[in-house]
Amino acid sequence: MRYCKSVCWIRRDLRLNDNIALSSAIAQSKEVVLVFVFDSNILGKLKNKNDRRITFIYESLLELDQDLREKGSALVVLQGDPKIEIPQFSKRIKANAIFVNRDYEPYAKKRDKAVQNTCKKLGIVFNDYKDHVIFEGNELLNQSGKPYKVFTPYKNKWLVELNKTHYQNHKPNLKGLSSIKKLRGELSDWSFNTIGFNSVKLWLKPGQSAAENQLKQFLPHLNTYDKYRDYPFITNGTSHLSVHLRFGTLSIRSLVRVALNSTNSGAKTWLSELIWRDFYQMILDQFPHVVKGCFNQKYEQIQWPGVERHFTLWCQGMTGFPIIDSAMRCFNQTGWMHNRLRMIVASFLTKDLLVDWRKGEKWFAKNLLDFDLASNNGGWQWCASTGCDAQPYFRIFNPITQSKKFDPTGNFIRQYLPELNNFSNKHIHWPHLADREAQIKLGCIFGKNYPKPIVDHTEQRIKALQLFKF
Ligand SMILES: Cc1cc2nc3c(=O)[nH]c(=O)nc-3n(C[C@H](O)[C@H](O)[C@H](O)COP(=O)(O)OP(=O)(O)OC[C@H]3O[C@@H](n4cnc5c(N)ncnc54)[C@H](O)[C@@H]3O)c2cc1C
């Protein structure tokens, strides 16, 4: 054993199963204390006290703590600035080492560096591990020894380099955790009250066991993933695991094991999506300028002419385009949106309303339950054609064609826009063709019960094309 006592600090890895930092800490220490910090730097910036993500984290931790208590241990929960709290706590309990899983967001990298520096002065060793992705940072490089900028060659390299060690199960032996008796003085009360947020109702269950159940429920649908993944009205068309991946209530390795276990085309396509996730994490890590600016810096010169009023109507789901409005209202009600719809609404905001992608990205960041800086930024820049492996700027989604193709019977639209219920499957995608008499008959007057379209797609498309020509 290298260490007498260690702290394992969990952040976006809220699970006991298949956790590299935790299993390494236990393997190398006589005794391990598991710690989470409600970070005042992050929480302080959240103005909405009903933020769904806090409920997800809180309930996931509650389950984790209960699991530990059944095994005779407990979770230590701290509140404050982790740069101060983690070194102070480690010193107080006389820990020799800290174990964490790496996080590639700029704030997290800076925070961890500061913790590491303070710990060094205190004689506490800081150990960090790759756990959140399969390949990180500069592990996969192109033939010129540079990070990839395009997805397909990155994916090919990812598949060639992959071996069993990359996705093996790191099962911690939980017997190595400190007993509750020893932790007694460190177990403070933590409640929604003490962290200053409200508990809200979520559409999915938080926690490790819910994540595992969600995966089990999706498994029978994996083989048809390639066929159904683009249809938002199909319940199990996609896995709905993004929130669990975001907070680490499930490990990425467990999903890769599942994908590799099947040889069908559904599993292959799903694995490809997991690789997209790794790709965007790598882009964020290697090209951190994307946080504020265009990946492709030549597009910084675009002067986006979109107006605030259009942005507000987009956020509210009041644009008069049914597929956009139903997607945005679903998002506002649940904090989640299907991938196809994310692409359609992002394209609409940037290429139809001509609003800077950063505004949409921020709105998603504020409200997405699965918000992940890397994937969100990557997704927005892809749709706005400012990103890596960009959709060529001249490929602009037509929201009505997309609606007909991916919600052919209007089932999704009807779920969130009941005011359009009486329109036929054919007309629901563009109900504005109905004259006044038909509107009265169908119980929906445009401008009163449902907005008139705020822009003309054909005109806006031409303007968008002009924006990118320089
Ligand atoms: C504008 C925009 C913003 C996005 N913002 C986020 C975000 O903040 N957080 C987030 O996790 N995903 C984001 N995505 C990617 C994608 O929409 C979601 O991951 C997906 O909808 C989650 O649903 P699922 O879990 O059912 O995915 P599945 O289709 O079952 O895919 C499995 C997993 O693969 C990963 N994945 C799938 N598609 C992508 C993708 N295009 N890029 C990166 N990873 C992917 C996710 O972790 C997902 O859970 C965004 C996409 C766009 C176009």
Offer a quick outline of the entry.
The chain is α/β, with parallel strands linked by helices and 470 residues long. It is built from 23 helices and five strands. The protein is globular, with a radius of gyration of 24 Å.
Q: What features would you describe in this structure?
A:
- The protein has 470 residues and is an alpha/beta fold.
- The protein has three domains: 1-131, HUPs (Rossmann fold, 3-Layer(aba) Sandwich), CATH 3.40.50; 133-167 and 209-286, Serine Threonine Protein Phosphatase 5, Tetratricopeptide repeat (Alpha Horseshoe), CATH 1.25.40; 297-467, Orthogonal Bundle (DNA Cyclobutane Dipyrimidine Photolyase, subunit A, domain 3), CATH 1.10.579.10.
- It contains 23 helices and five strands.
- Strand 4 (97-101), helix 5 and strand 5 (125-129) form a beta-alpha-beta unit.
- Helix 13 runs antiparallel to helix 14 (265-286).
- The longest helix has 22 residues, at 265-286.
- It binds flavin-adenine dinucleotide (FAD).
